[in-house]
Here is the input.
Amino acid sequence: MISAQNLQQRLSGNKLAFSFLLAAGLILLVSCSTKKPVLITPEDTDKTAVAEDSNVPDTGYPPMDTVQWNEIDLSDDYENVIEELAMNKKESYSVKLFFPFEKDNNKLSDVNQSETKLGRMAQYYAGVLLALEQLENEGVNLDVEVLDAESGNFDLKLQSMKDADVIIGPRNTDQLAVVADFGKVNEIVVVSPWKSGSRISNGNPFFVQLKTGLVEHYEKMVRHALDNHELEHIVLLGRKQKADVNYMRLIQSIASGYLSSDSRKPLRELFVDEDSLITGETAFDSIFIEEDTNCFILPHWSFSADEDFVYNVARKMSGEKGVTDVVLYGMPILFESDKIRFELFRSLNMRIVRSSYVDRNSPGVKEFRQKYFGEYNDFPVDEAYEAYDMMLFIGRSLERFGLSFPHYLDREITPMLQTHYDIRRVYDDTENDDFEDIDYFQNQHLFILSFEDDRFIAR
Here is the structure.
């Protein structure tokens, strides 16, 4: 992990002058170009901290909404429009990063604690810096300014970004909505690396979401289950709560669409009593079919609302199933929760939908780990891989396609260290034939993580 001393030493000017010196309230301007790095230290007069969205679980995984959007496929007509779209290339691009450091409410010593918010953001920042070094080696010219979105005067900092070519972040949902609208008005591309949701910004061709939304997770899960299991063996799990009923209704609608079924509920449903998971002899009764594989879908994703329920379902199901074959489909919380142990992965043959996965055996990942260790004397966590991928992708996209780069991103799927970027245009209305009316852009890539031979395989 990056130590506080390491951070302060970076101010000395070696390489890209990696530092943010939270205690002093500095703002870093890193130049990824042939020019020397420049460090600016403007006064931070308003020390009012911006509060984190209270509805957002701080899990490192973005909260997602339940509003479905529609997508229009590529067409010859749209390709003609794209060909006429100016790339607006420049010799150098101004990139502003809004980071959730929240320096006013954190200790600088937390940078070496990976379980803290500041520790995760330090790892993310370290990944960004390594990507900037790589982009500099590739001849990509970026002037990158990093600001703390969650300390000081947010509005003042945002107004200083009118000369930006790209704004990355922030993480707070309310702040992100404001920045997205700011980008729309000023025709500046805003990239959201942490959050996704169809309600953040509408009718905004300058807004790019790198995280895949809730509906896409459910679609991937349902499609994979239907392709690999008999319909009568698939059971949808939930509680008799409003949120769960909404999740189940959405998944039933998705399944109905795939099956071209008139039924509003093509999948079997089981409402699980939470008390039975803890104190009851059984929670699943005689639902298991011994001679066939039993497939269950667990649609829960929220750490604050669902973690205990998800864990108890997995624990109880593993104990009750006996020798019956079970496959449990679930959301990233199954992979990310510290409560879920390997014996449950193995026992329930888990299939987890997730937008990212770091394969430690990949040559590219091994190379990055060595580079990161050589730079910071520690091994990277997931945030470092994610940030490295994000910054490389944005920098290379600017270099190839200029300021209009979002409109060109769906021409290819870009494999990275921990994800693929499959950016698609999102439209509000599938009946709309005006290909210029883009709602926003969003990454569509998702893995199915299968637990096989005591390790996860991403497919």
